[in-house]
Amino acid sequence: MVGAAGRMGQALAENLNLVDGLVVSAMVDLREPARLFGGSHFTSLERVAPSEVDVVVDFSQPDSVVTSAQWCARHRRGLVIGTTGLSDVQQSHVEVAAAATGVVMASNFSLGAVLSERFAAMAAPYFERVEIIELHHDRKVDAPSGTSIATAAHINDARRAAGRVTPEDPTRRVALEGARGADAGGGVRIHSVRLPGLVAHQEVLFGGAGEGLTIRHDSYDRVSFVQGVAIAVNHVDATPGFTWGIDDLIA
Ligand code: NAD
Q1: Which end of the chain has the lower number of beta carbons within 10 A, N or C?
Q2: What is the rounded CA–CA span in Å between residue 108 and residue 52?
Q3: Residues whose beta carbon lies within 6 Å of some atom of ligand 1
């Protein structure tokens, strides 16, 4: 577990240990984790004996994903990445690693979020406009969320496939920069909210003639990500290949 001292690392280590057949053996983090859940603490993946590890799970920060990817490629170990906010260069390191070993990467491992992305893509061709509001805890360092970017991409794919063109945004005067959110392409706008007390939430708001449809997903607790991560861990091995998202793994 890379990022083992973090909010996700701690929640995942505790709960993955409860999944049949999974044991979190190495807790990798620059900081000493508050709880080790039976594993051992290492300050770097480079200090972990490859023979002790079948799969690396990385929920840390983008730089260390590159280290994890290179380590997994070198030692032919499967890699599950939940860390978000990678640059194009960092992402290309992951893809290079996937030519040597198996990698599953997802911006959201909660099953509800995966389903809400599916539902949003289903609805996308039928409504004139769509905007996304993503809401997260106040210590999240990247914006907008990886999930909202992926949702916008799914929506745009579905709209393009259906030949649906979004009407132009009529806004001509913006009194405060950012009032209309970030343009995710295809007329889809993303608005990011950061507040204490939140975990991870998203609303996809569709608007059409005289009606609206809102698809909302809430992760109230980090335990919501465990089942999806366990599915990815059980799926991935050293067979080279890159899998984006767990959509195909949950059938
Ligand atoms: P966090 O800040 O609580 O934890 C990150 C941890 O990574 C920290 O303990 C930090 O010390 C550690 N770290 C930093 N550099 C490191 C390095 N070089 N080697 C080892 N450890 C290092 O953050 P968090 O809330 O746990 O989130 C972690 C990541 O997971 C973020 O990118 C977040 O967006 C992402 N996330 C993804 C999902 C998903 O479903 N894909 C869900 C929640 C969070």
Answers
A1: C
A2: 27
A3: 2-3, 5-9, 28-31, 59-61, 63-64, 82-85, 106-109, 225
Select from 84, 136, 149, 220 the residue to mutate for testing ligand 1; criterion: most ligand atoms less than 8 Å from CB. Answer: 84
In the chain, which residues have pLDDT < 50?
Answer: none
Structure tokens that stand for 115 in this block: 């389903």
Architecture in CATH for domain 7-105+223-249: 3-Layer(aba) Sandwich (3.40)
Q: Which residues are tagged catalytic?
A: 136, 140
Q: How far, in Å, from the CA of 3 to the mean position of ligand 1?
A: 5
Q: Which CATH class is domain 111-220?
A: alpha beta
| Residues 80-118: tens digit of each pLDDT | 999 999 999 999 999 999 999 999 999 899 999 999 999
pLDDT at 251: 75
Q: 92 CB contacts (<8 Å, ≥6 apart)?
A: none
Domain ranges of the chain: 7-105+223-249, 111-220
- Whose Cα sits closest to atom 37 in ligand 1? 82
Backbone angles phi, psi at 118, to 5 degrees: -60, -45
